[in-house]
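pasting for the record
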Amino acid sequence: MVMGDIATATDLLVIGAGPGGYVAAIRGAQKGLDTTLVEKDAFGGACLNRGCIPSKAFIHGADVVHDASNAEELGIHADPAVDMSQMQQWKSGVVDQLTGGVEKLCKANGVSLLEGTAAFEDEHTARIAHGGEGQGMETVEFEHAIVATGSRPIQIPGFDFADEPVLSSEDLLNMESVPDSLVVVGAGYIGMELSTMLAKLGTDVTIVEMLDDVLPNYESDVQRTVRSRAEDLGIEFHFGEGATGWEESGGGIVVSTETEDGEESEYEGDAVLVAVGRRPVTDTLELENIGLEPDENGFLATDDRVRTDVENVFAVGDVAGEPMLAHKASAEGIVAAEVAAGEPAAFDKQAIPAAVFTDPEIATVGMTEADAEESGFDPVVGEMPLRASGRALSMGESEGFVRIVADEESEIVLGGQLVCPNASELVAEVALAVEMSATLEDVAGTIHTHPTLAEAVMEAAENAQGQAIHTLNR
């Protein structure tokens, strides 16, 4: 230690206070471990401060504007005015309430909180650099450490986030006014969520995507439904084109693209949003001091107890690999803390739901039909279209479906795909079915409230049995 350093010791050191880290810290303290949580920026991590929560707050606001503006069929005529400054204040209030709650929960559970950037000195020692001039360093000795440092937006050549017209998702969520026009690079879930939100707020959105459709890795009918609704909102797509650069032009910018065949195009906008994914943050940890090296994608390999190759060091959340989801991070954090406390916990990946907050929402869990076939199952599929749902029609929604995939012989539910309003909520029932190895009969035989969207889950299970009442059986 240099002059002025202080040294402390802890049973469990958690690095990063996002949804993986703060959950791990709380569970570790609950299990009787002396726990220290280090955060260099803001408690709650990217999810609460710069991602999940602020984006969903804005998406909700955009939905209110859009629904009010497009309700003539219901006899409702309105022309809402958007005060972006006030919406920002509201969003910030939501974020502050949640991040403040995280800090209070940690303290209430006996977690020691440190502000600073942690780096490993060896397998049982970390150095914490406190921010600010004269704040100094602190050395923490630990029995176990959990790396939960999260991820940051990927920057692509020719588009530097330091340049004012080039926006990351975080930059966009801090906007003080709604842009008249925007070029979006990337049609993955981040690009599609934010593009849909902005289109509802009145922005002319142009999306450039290297691949041939939106939302890679989703089934074609899922992609088609979301893309069609986005086009109805006025979003313009250009597939098979990679963004190569930008330049200022007449108060705005022009984004240049190129196809694999060398064909070049240009698209105008007030700014450009780069939304091509996120990359794990490990560069501040000095992992070489403990013999760890991320793979080519920046991830740390872990076993089913979320331990790295260094037995007393765990990795959770985005830094531990796909899927890069907040709830997966929290689940891993709980496992890591319980293993550190000597309990026989393990991480099970079979029922991790995923949701995309587009219009309509998408949610998936477990296997698709193709996945089931590749895994050696003989799958049976049941589906309930929204056009046959009384609740969906009463909401003015008729596009989308709920699909359940099961093993034909045993009728055990293997997965589900939902494209409908509130899909992010409805998927929990299918996830529970997958987790419990429930059968189609278990789902179909459960009485569901009428009229609800949740009935579509029951009807899909009945359809897989060839016994659906409100839709034609396959």
